[in-house]
Amino acid sequence: MAPSYNSGQKALLEFYDGGNWSSVGLATMIGFLTPLGTMLGFDCAVHMSEEIRDASDTLPRSIFWGVLLNMLLGYLAIFTLCFTITDPSAIVSTPTKYPFIQHMYNITQSHAATNTMSGIIILALLSAIIAEIATASRQVWSFARDKGLPYSSFLAKVDPRLPIPLNAIIVSFICGVGFSLVNLGSAVALNAIVSLTTSALLSSYVLSIGCILSKRLRGESLPPARWSLGRWGGVVNAISLVFLIAFFV
Questions:
Q1: pLDDT tens, residue by residue, 129-174
Q2: Per-residue pLDDT for 2 more than 70?
Q3: Rounded to whole angstroms, how far apart are CA atoms 9 and 83?
């Protein structure tokens, strides 16, 4: 469908350093920070465990298959981009300010097709926002239930008609909108907030995975689980920890 394609050698072996960094390794690490966000948040479903039937089996399976499916679709998207982006500089400097929109138009040469594909991406982002608010509200509700937040009695209230922690959901939504509005005043400030939250997530992953790996290496038994990676669990823990520490540092 694209009017032109890159050769296999250019798409898979040629490196593009649009930031003119001092080395390929540094450019790779910096360029990986943005897509790193797509690898975070698969644990969000855990915060909904009290509302899920058979959570000890359903949750880990859903997380595993979610990671696997998104990995396959992600690689498909990456290979497609590598073969169809023939001029990265022109894509980045697009007047639309959104390179992915310009790229879709370059491929389709159709405003209708571009709008349709952009709409699909927007719907996916809206779905992600709904999921994030749902999981954040359950964390707020959980802390409030244990009297760990100001106005805990208000935040811990569950609406008997729905029944969901409606107050916690509303507060989570308002906080999310408030942080988004920061971008209107200062994009730098919003980037600082996003960087802080990403660092907090990475540090929480490092601590939790590190503790589990430590118990494995010392031969200590782990709590019984209905779903487990078995003997591959330690290998996955080790690879995950090395990956996380590299990008956290």
A1: 888 899 999 999 999 999 999 999 999 999 888 888 999 999 999 9
A2: no
A3: 10
pLDDT at 248 over 80: no
Rounded to whole angstroms, how far apart are CA atoms 36 and 243?
Answer: 11
Number of other CB atoms surrounding residue 16 within 10 Å: 12
Torsion over CA: 106, 111, 112, 116 (sign): positive
The DSSP secondary-structure symbol of 227 reads S
**Pair 108, 102: CB distance under 8 Å:** no
Dihedral pair phi/psi, residue 31, rounded to 5°: -65, -20
Q: Which long-range contacts (CB under 8 A, 24 or more apart) does 238-241 make?
A: 238/213, 240/205, 240/209, 241/206, 241/209, 241/210, 241/213
Q: Please give the Cα distance from 58 to 64 (Å, whole number).
A: 10
d(CA 194, CA 199): 9
